[in-house]
Amino acid sequence: MLALDLMNASFGYLRRNPREILKTARELVALRLGVPIDGLRWLAEHALPHNLFPIGLRVEAAPPFLRLGAEVNAMGTPIRASLCIGVDEVQVNANTLQFALRIAEIDLEMAGESVSPLAVLIKSGVLDLSRPGDLVHHLPMRPPVITEARGDRIVVDLFKIPMVALNPAIRITAALLSAVLSVDAIEADEERLYVVLRRSSAAG
User: Fold this and answer.
1) What is the pLDDT of residue 193?
2) Which residues of the chain have pLDDT under 50?
3) How far from chain centre, in Å, is Cα 165?
4) Where exactly are the structural domains of the chain?
C-alpha cells in the first residue's frame, strides 16, 4: 500500500509541476537524477502513513545532507526530533540493496510532559547522540535490516526484509540496473537531492 501511495503522490506532484519531467530527463542524459526537495516534502505529506509521523515529517536542505524533523512518540515519550542524514555508499545487485547512511546533528527535545526513562535522559542532557551508530549497535533487538552500525554510520540492507528479498521483480530490476549503472554518490544542494550515476564497467 505504501508503494502505491508513493506512486500516486509522485504522479500528483508531477501533474502540478510538469516542468520537472523535462528537467529530470535532461539530468538523466548526464547520468544525474535530481529530485526536488519540494517533491520530497510533498511525498512526506501525502504518502507516508500518518500513524508514523502524526505531527508531520519535515524535509529541509542541509547540503550535502538532508535535514529531517518530526514529532514522534517513543516509548511513551513525546519528542520533537531532527537530524541530518546523508548517503555515504550504495551497493545494488541481485543479492544486495544496501545503503550506508551518515547521521549527524541529532537534536531531541520534549514535545510534552513525561516521566519515562527516555524523558529523564533527554532532560538531563546526558544522552550522547554524537555517535548514533554506537547506540544502534548495542540495541538488544537490532533489526536484521541494519547490518552495520558504528560511529555516525549505519548500514541498511533492504534485502534483509523478507518482503523485499522474496520479490522477484525487485531482484531482477536490481540485477539489470547494476549491470548497466551504479550509484556514484547521493548528495543534496539547496533545492534538489541528486543521485549521481556512472556506467558499470561491465556495460562498457
Assistant:
1) 93
2) 1
3) 19
4) 74-185
105: left (phi over 0), alpha (psi -120 to 50) or beta: left
Grid cell for residue 11:
504522479
Compute how many other C-beta atoms are within 10 angstroms of the C-beta atom of residue 73: 13
CA angle 2, 53, 171 (to 5 degrees): 30
Report the run of H or E that residue 57 belongs to, with start and end: strand 57-62
- Nearest to 12, CA basis, from 30, 38, 31, 32: 38
75 vs 116, 141, 194, CA distance in Å? 8, 15, 35
DSSP 114: -
At residue 13, the pLDDT reads 78
DSSP secondary structure letter of residue 160: G
Q: What are the two backbone dihedrals, phi and then psi, of residue 101, each rounded to the nearest 5 degrees?
A: -100, 140
N residues, the chain:
204
Please answer whether residues 84 and 64 qualify as being in contact, where contact means their C-beta atoms are separated by less than 8 angstroms: no
Q: What is the pTM of this model?
A: 0.81
pLDDT for res 104: 94
* Residue 192 Cα distances to 33, 39, 67, 204, angstroms: 9, 9, 13, 29
Cβ–Cβ under 8 Å, residues 126 and 71 = no
Give the integer Cα–Cα distance in Å for 99 and 97: 7
pLDDT, tens only, 105-150: 999 988 888 888 888 888 888 888 899 999 899 888 899 999 999 9
Q: What share of the chain is helix, strand, coil (3-state, %, to 5)?
A: 35, 40, 25
